Amino acid sequence: MRRYGPAALLLLTGGAVLRITLFGDLYLRYVQAGLRPYLIVSGVALVLLGVVTAILCHHTPSPHEDAHDKDTHDEGDDGFAGHEGHSHGPAGPRVAWLLTLPALALLLFPPPALGSYSAGREAAQRAAQGVGTFPALPAGNPVELTVAGFSSRAIYDSGRSLKGRTVRLTGFVTHGDDGTWYVTRLLVTCCAADATTGKVEIRDADDDALPADTWVTVTGTWRPKGTLGSDAAWPPVLDAATVTRVKQPADPYEKP
Questions:
Q1: Is residue 71 a contact partner of residue 82, using CB atoms and an 8 Å limit?
Q2: Half-sphere exposure (CA, 13 Å, Cβ side) for 239?
Q3: Region Disordered: start and end of each range (predicted)?
Q4: Which of 2, 34, 79, 172 is at 20 to 30 A from 63, Cα to Cα?
Q5: Which of 111, 126, 152 is the last residue in one of the domains?
Q6: Which residues of 15-46 are buried (b: 16+ CB within 10 A; e: fewer)?
Q7: What is the rounded distance in angstroms from the CA atom of residue 152 to the CA atom of residue 229?
Q8: What is the pTM of this model?
Q9: 57-95, pLDDT tens digit by residue?
């Protein structure tokens, strides 16, 4: 059965990729939605390659059979086989078997989306953009904004478009060392590997004991802080009117 190992590994990896793309939205924990077709094609290609490899292995003599035939041909009159007949060819690079564990994990126990641990490791980095005016917000209150969108307006908008408006933000809870807590989202350009952190400090909330990674929707008003474009303006502050626990969305990341 050892010679079927490469085929089994290809089928396992391809099946894991198809499992997270064809039968749900799990792939959104790792990559952008636009990459789904490419993942499906890759998964199908791996499965087909695994099937072809298994068929070829079935019709190809194993190294043991080749060695046995060589022993038979090399056997002399004294009945002893040649020493070289006992060599066995490799069944492929052993390091390839390291793919088995992540493939099994993806197939059986898909890792969760990045959360507060990843956000905590991310330094407070902001896009290099200058202070200026932003487009007007839609009419009506509350205004649904992304965490990144709210942060940009709070820190860089010289037109103060957030002033007097009620906004609604959704994200997961992270905690600061001084007892503050934040609504946090990870911004993904391509995949989870390039995720960057955006967060908004929440004040005046009734419930300050929410555990980390709890998903919430917060409605409130912007509290100006620091000079526009300066480090003192980071992170922006929202005075909370309501805090509601919600389920993690199917796509947990924000897009640029």
A1: yes
A2: 10
A3: 62-88
A4: 79
A5: 111
A6: bbbbbbbeeeebbbbbbbeebbeebeebbeeb
A7: 9
A8: 0.60
A9: 766 765 555 544 445 444 444 444 444 444 444 455 565
